[in-house]
């Protein structure tokens, strides 16, 4: 699992719905600050994913195709080749197995921020959301290291991507009406401060 020594370039396709700095600021200001909720009762199984999106293609396969370059898929929709640039760490991969689809706002974080009271159907919609900037192809071990952390304890190592990451996080929390902690809000405000627009 070695990244190819190619000059990094942003993915040709990216999640939709990334707001402008001013929109993200308005959304951040409107979010409810609250103490982090309990993990009691949490299970990833309560957020059914990956679901079929089109034909035989599931959410993971759809994001791999969207976020990659020259992606070739087999009849079952699995990516057999392509090139993926991970904006979190700047690595480029040519094997889909080296790429995870990150939930920008992790499922467990959503649970602690209000999703524990949702229906399973709503959690499924959240876990497979292709309309907001909630799903992105990234290096697998970077995604695993991020785990369920919020921006107060984890941010992309590529500092130039932190503005975009903050805008994505805020847009998702805003749309899904999830709360945030004061430390999380402070971190997001700092990251948003690095944005030019």
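Q: What amino acid sequence fits the structure above?
A:
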């Amino acid at each position: 699992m070695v990244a190819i020594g190619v000059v990094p370039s942003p993915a040709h396709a990216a999640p939709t719905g990334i707001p402008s700095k001013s929109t993200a600021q308005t959304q951040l200001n409107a979010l409810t600050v609250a103490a982090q909720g309990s993990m009691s009762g949490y299970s990833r199984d309560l957020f059914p994913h990956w679901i079929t999106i089109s034909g035989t293609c599931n959410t993971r396969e759809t994001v791999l195709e969207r976020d990659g370059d020259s992606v070739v898929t087999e009849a079952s929709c699995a990516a057999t080749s392509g090139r993926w640039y991970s904006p979190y760490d700047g690595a480029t991969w040519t094997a889909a197995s080296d790429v995870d689809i990150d939930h920008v706002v992790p499922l467990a974080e959503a649970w602690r921020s209000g999703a524990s009271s949702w229906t399973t159907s709503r959690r499924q919609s959240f876990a497979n959301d292709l309309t907001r900037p909630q799903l992105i192809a990234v290096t697998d071990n970077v995604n695993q290291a991020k785990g369920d952390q919020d921006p107060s304890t984890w941010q992309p190592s590529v500092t130039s991507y932190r503005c975009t990451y903050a805008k994505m996080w805020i847009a998702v929390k805003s749309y899904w009406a999830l709360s945030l902690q004061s430390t999380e809000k402070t971190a997001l405000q700092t990251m948003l401060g690095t944005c030019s627009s």
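Q: And what stands out in the fold?
A: The helical segments are 21-30, 59-67, 107-112, 120-127, 140-146, 162-175, 182-192.
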